[in-house]
Amino acid sequence: MENAISKQNTSAKRKKVIKSTITYIILSAIAVLILLPFFWMLSTALKTNADIFEWPPVLFPKSPHWENFANAWKALPFNKYLLNTIFVVVLGMTGEIISETIVAYGFARFNFPGKNIIFFILLATMMLPFHVTLIPTFIIWKKLGLVGTFDPLVLRSWTAWGPFYVFLLRQFFMGIPTELDDAAEIDGASPMQTFFHIILPQIKPALLAVCVFAFKGYWNDFLGPLVYLTDMDYYTMNMGMYFFMGGVSEAPKWNYLMAMSSIVALPTILLFFFAQKYFVEGVTFTGLKD
Amino acid sequence: MERYLGTFERWLIVPVILTAIAFATYYLLKRHGWKQRQATGFALITPWLVGFIIFTAFPLIYSLYLSFTDYSLFGKPKWVGLKNYIWLFTKDVEFWPSVKITLLYAALTVPIGVIGSLLVALLLNKKVKGIGVFRTIYYLPAVLPEVAVALLWRWLFNSDSGLLNYFLSPILKLFGLGKPNWFGDPKFVLPAFVIMSVWGIFGTNTVVFLAGLQGVPKSLYEVADLDGASSYKKFKYITAPQISPIILLQIIMGMISSLQIFTVAMFVRPTTAAGKFMNQLIYERGFTQLHMGEASAVAWVLFVIILALTLLVFRSTPAWVYYEAEVKR
């Protein structure tokens, strides 16, 4: 009897081991599929022009040419482009995070006539194709004489530009019990004090999530700079990349392009590793709650 | 330095103006008999409201107006009625191919993306050691900038020295086929874009599905286990209905973003023989050729397509989306 039970146990155990082994094999196979392109990007970046077109392709370059990174960087004034990008990212991010926190707080904690309709409209703007408003917006900036400056890229940030982020922050604000506000009020705290000392510390994860998303948004923006920046001195990294790619008829220098791609990808990858928790939290929070 | 200074000054002035508007709104509303908390709440959302009116509502209406005009940024828009639309629908050789490739791209990538990321999420939901490492790796493609993704894939798809053709050519040789010139051949442009998008299904969508799967009450599975239900039945009767609202969200978000493909296409620079994506067409008509009226018309066609498809998906929801609240009633 006992024997039979232990036999059953071992067969169940064996089944479990086989099952988890299969899972590992599938998981690893997909991981390789994901990582191989990354690896290929780095590997190409370290090759000479002649090595690149070797057939069959060489995964590990015989002698890595690290100087490709420096040479690619120096091929265009990328120092300047990086500085421009940082300027746009910092101003845009700051404006967004401040204005979105305020707007989200208004939606989450106060009741006023028409609130639900307005919030619905805010959510609906998420579905609006950016290109529909692009031309009139361009005309506005042109009439203001600001096309060619960074203004069209950064000033809008103050108007809580990202409906997605407002939504995310509102969800977090709603999760804080109002009893906390009341208690603070009884203790004689002003609404401002309540907001800064009681509420804000509680939504830190959401604020960090928005920071991470906004950074990624401004860093990745291409259409904005493409439409609004006319002077090469004002170009951002992505615009630099667009010109670095060369004309339609030119053959791209793949080692340099992959080197630059790795450099452009580095900040968002680093940010992801350090702030993975907030990335994932932000994504799941908005994806699930209604 | 001077290229930053002016922008920085104006960047500092804008919040001052917005604050002033908020305060003015607050006092105005209070004078009209709103309670203090009501007026405060409304005042707090005015920054968004101002931005919405200037940068969304007005441009939306104005672009509709522009689509009925001839306008080249210089001079005044000239009203031409339906001319732009008639031209697009009947004469323009680039319009229908553009609509076709954009719709086909969305029709292929959305189902593949939703089903693929759901399968990957089911896999990542397994309780095995080291799953955290896999989750991190699987999220990587989502954090890569579009520019880098596009250039990387353009290189992977390179017909002579690309890695993809290296792996594919032995298989293709069996069928007597040569190496496909992916982005350079109108026949292969669409498949190439779809393959590229599959790589991106790992990432954001997967993470959302994963969180959804973890939110399904364990007790439901325990009851099913007692009844001896198979894994397939458990998926069909428990998992699928429980996460159906997330599937709906993913379909809609996927549709909206895939119909708006732009940056990737600009960097991949595929042959235009198969058609340009609609957003590329808008950019080209508007900012390269300065036909603002025509560009606005294309933009509005795209907008109507997105709106119609979204409504269609929403109307189908009672048939397959399950909401907890309906049962509790």
Report the CATH topology name of the largest domain in chain A: MetI-like fold
Overall, the morphology of chain B is: globular
- For the record, the CATH class of the largest domain in chain A is Mainly Alpha
What's the total count of β strands of chain B?
A: 2
Proportion of strand residues of chain A: under 5%
Structural class of chain A: mainly alpha
Strand order of the largest sheet of chain B: 1-2
Number of H- or I-type helical stretches of chain B: 15
Question: How would you characterize the overall build of this protein?
Answer:
Helix content of chain A is 74%, strand content 0%. Chain A is mainly alpha-helical and 290 residues long. Chain A has two domains: 2-67, no CATH class; 74-288, MetI-like fold. The longest helix of chain B has 31 residues, at 36-66. Helices cover 76% and strands 1% of the residues of chain B. Chain B is globular, with a radius of gyration of 25 Å. In chain B, a hairpin with a 7-residue loop joins strand 1 and strand 2. Chain B is built from 15 helices and two strands. Chain B has two domains: 2-66, no CATH class; 89-328, MetI-like (MetI-like fold), CATH 1.10.3720. The mean pLDDT of chain B is 89. Chains A and B meet through helix 1, helix 4, helix 5, helix 6 and helix 11 of A and helix 1, helix 2, helix 4, helix 5 and helix 6 of B.
Gist of the model:
By secondary structure, chain A is mainly alpha-helical.
Relevant terms:
heterodimer, A: about 290 residues, mainly alpha, MetI-like fold, 2 domains, 14 helices, about 75% helix, B: about 325 residues, 2 strands
SSE layout and pairing:
The complex is a heterodimer of chains A (290) and B (329).
Chain A lengths: L1 H44 L3 H4 L14 H9 L2 H32 L5 H10 L5 H14 L7 H4 L8 H12 L3 H9 L4 H12 L1 H17 L2 H6 L8 H8 L9 H35 L2
Helix pairs in contact in A: 1-14, 3-14, 4-8, 4-11, 8-11, 9-10, 11-14, 13-14
Chain B lengths: L1 H30 L4 H31 L2 E2 L7 E2 L3 H9 L3 H30 L6 H13 L2 H11 L6 H12 L11 H14 L4 H11 L3 H9 L4 H29 L3 H6 L9 H11 L3 H29 L3 H5 L1
Antiparallel strand pairs in B: 1-2
Helix pairs in contact in B: 1-2, 4-8, 4-9, 4-11, 9-11, 11-14, 13-14
